[in-house]
């Protein structure tokens, strides 16, 4: 797979990306070579304008295409830190968390607890207690054991807990097997075929300490077609209609997140607005057909909000040319900050950030610095002649890179900056060697 690096591939970069007259990549009017000098590499750069555009796109598309209340909730697991949680709160989005740790960061950031939804297939009692005591807005219940545990905790507090049920709609999203979450054979959610979903709903409806507010499903990630989402909506609405007679009042409906982003020019474009509009139409028409009142519609994007806003910046160290075979360029990061190529076979492009105006001359493979042969960031990328010390910028690095990062090989995790209108703000400092010993 050859990835052609042309001006076209700047289109994968944040919306403020441009090439300066010095041939350098600029983001938000900042020369990334200067950012590398100031903050070091590997460096993760988030472009505020791109995140803002994408948030607005979701909110406006929902408002214009769905004829009732709606909301966008950012799936924090794509990337979270205090500054980002505050940014999401200010943008007016709700927040999805999937762990006590994410919840802790959100609460530390002052995120309004009532706007937090707590997902996850195995929330511990401690995590549920943290959520209940904080007043988290929705607990998304995943299985019957959790429902029983939650009911008990709520009874102790003599206060009904607002919940959604996560259903497993048996819908096949066409994406990598590790990113499919909606099939019958999945660890997530209540299966419908074996009656568990109906059992859970009946139990919740009869429980004075459980307030069943809505239904949820999330069928996968990095999905480029609307069909699986529309199928999911149909399944959820059928379920709501079936249980209406038993008292289920569908006040909220969340068909999850999962919309894809382009990582390379060979990926299809994935505009947000038409996806949101077709989902909105499916919900509105589906409710009308079943005589259901329109629920509040909640979408939960993670990747498509922050993925394209992020750029990973690396410094090239060694070059290894094996004649007739391959040329490796090794960079100062890799699988510890981006496991996606090794985990999913994900593909990336890159440009030479300090030679962005030079013509492509050679085909290279970008290798990480970690002790695994699979630690390759991108294969067969066409680049100008690269020398040690040059900077490589990898676009679409904002989602599930740092969120899945590790200290493999005792690598300190990279610094993260947020750039906007010519200003860079450090939002996560680089880890130090002392940090590596902090728990030791
Ligand atoms: C991960 C997740 C999302 C977001 O998925 P993306 O592919 O990043 O949009 C939304 N909802 C739930 C429940 C999730 O687990």
Quick take:
With 440 residues, this protein is an alpha/beta fold. It has 2 domains: 7-47 and 308-436, Beta Barrel (Lyase, Ornithine Decarboxylase, Chain A, domain 1), CATH 2.40.37; 119-301, Alanine racemase (TIM Barrel, Alpha-Beta Barrel), CATH 3.20.20. Helix content is 30%, strand content 24%.
Number of strands: 21
Strand content: 15-25%
Percent range of helical residues: 25-40%
Mean pLDDT: 95
Secondary-structure class: alpha/beta
Cα separation of the termini: 43 Å
Q: Explain this structure to me?
A:
- The two termini are 43 Å apart.
- This protein is 30% helix and 24% strand.
- The chain has twelve helices and 21 strands.
- It folds into two domains: 7-47 and 308-436, Lyase, Ornithine Decarboxylase, Chain A, domain 1, CATH 2.40.37.10; 119-301, TIM Barrel.
- Strand 6, helix 4 (100-108) and strand 7 form a beta-alpha-beta unit.
- The chain is elongated.
- The protein is α/β, with parallel strands linked by helices.
- The strands form three sheets. Strands 4, 14, 15, 16, 17, 18, 19, 20 and 21 form a nine-stranded mixed β-sheet that branches. An eight-stranded parallel β-barrel has the order 5-6-7-8-9-11-12-13, surrounded by seven helices. It has a three-stranded antiparallel β-sheet with strand order 1-2-3.
- Helix 5 (125-134) crosses helix 6 (144-157) and helix 8 (227-244) packs parallel to helix 9 (272-290).
- The structure holds pyridoxal-5'-phosphate (PLP).
- Pyridoxal-5'-phosphate is lined by residues 75, 77-78, 96, 98, 119, 218, 221, 256-259, 300-304, 399.
């Amino acid at each position: 797979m050859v990835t052609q690096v042309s001006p076209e591939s700047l289109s994968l970069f944040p919306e403020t990306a441009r090439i300066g007259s010095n041939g350098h990549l600029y983001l938000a009017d900042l020369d990334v070579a200067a950012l590398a000098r100031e903050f070091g590499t590997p460096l993760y750069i988030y472009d505020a304008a791109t995140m803002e555009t994408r948030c607005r796109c979701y909110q406006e598309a929902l408002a214009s295409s769905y004829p009732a209340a709606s909301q966008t909730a950012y799936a924090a697991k794509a990337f979270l830190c205090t500054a980002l949680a505050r940014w999401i709160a200010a943008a007016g989005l709700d927040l999805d968390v999937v762990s006590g740790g994410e919840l802790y960061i959100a609460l530390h950031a002052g995120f309004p607890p009532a706007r937090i939804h707590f997902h996850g297939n195995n929330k511990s009692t401690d995590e549920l207690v943290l959520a209940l005591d904080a007043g988290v807005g929705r607990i998304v219940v995943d299985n019957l054991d959790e429902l029983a545990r939650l009911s008990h905790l709520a009874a102790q507090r003599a206060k009904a807990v607002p919940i959604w049920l996560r259903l497993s709609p048996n819908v096949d999203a066409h994406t990598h097997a590790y990113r499919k979450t909606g099939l019958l054979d999945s660890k997530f959610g209540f299966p419908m075929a074996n009656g568990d979903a109906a059992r859970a709903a009946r139990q919740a409806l009869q429980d004075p300490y459980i307030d069943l507010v809505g239904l949820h499903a999330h069928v996968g990630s990095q999905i480029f077609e609307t069909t699986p989402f529309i199928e999911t909506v149909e399944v959820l609405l059928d379920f709501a209609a079936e249980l209406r007679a038993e008292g289920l009042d569908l006040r909220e409906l969340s068909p999850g997140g999962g919309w894809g982003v382009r990582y390379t020019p060979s990926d299809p474009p994935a505009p947000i607005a038409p996806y949101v509009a077709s989902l909105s139409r499916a919900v509105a028409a589906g409710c009308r057909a079943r005589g259901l009142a329109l629920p509040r519609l909640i979408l939960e994007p993670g990747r498509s909000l922050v993925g394209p806003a992020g750029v990973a910046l690396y410094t090239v160290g060694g070059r290894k040319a094996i004649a007739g075979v391959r040329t490796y360029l090794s960079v100062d990061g890799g699988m510890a900050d981006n496991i996606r190529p090794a985990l999913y076979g994900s593909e990336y492009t890159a440009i030479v950030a300090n030679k962005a105006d030079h013509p492509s001359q050679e085909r290279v493979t970008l290798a990480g610095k970690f002790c695994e042969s699979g630690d390759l960031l991108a294969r067969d990328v066409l680049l100008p002649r690269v020398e040690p010390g040059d900077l490589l910028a990898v676009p679409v690095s904002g989602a599930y890179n740092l969120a899945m990062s590790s200290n493999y090989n005792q690598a300190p995790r990279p610094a993260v900056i947020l750039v906007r209108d010519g200003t860079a703000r450090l939002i996560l400092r680089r880890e130090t060697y002392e940090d590596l010993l902090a728990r030791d």
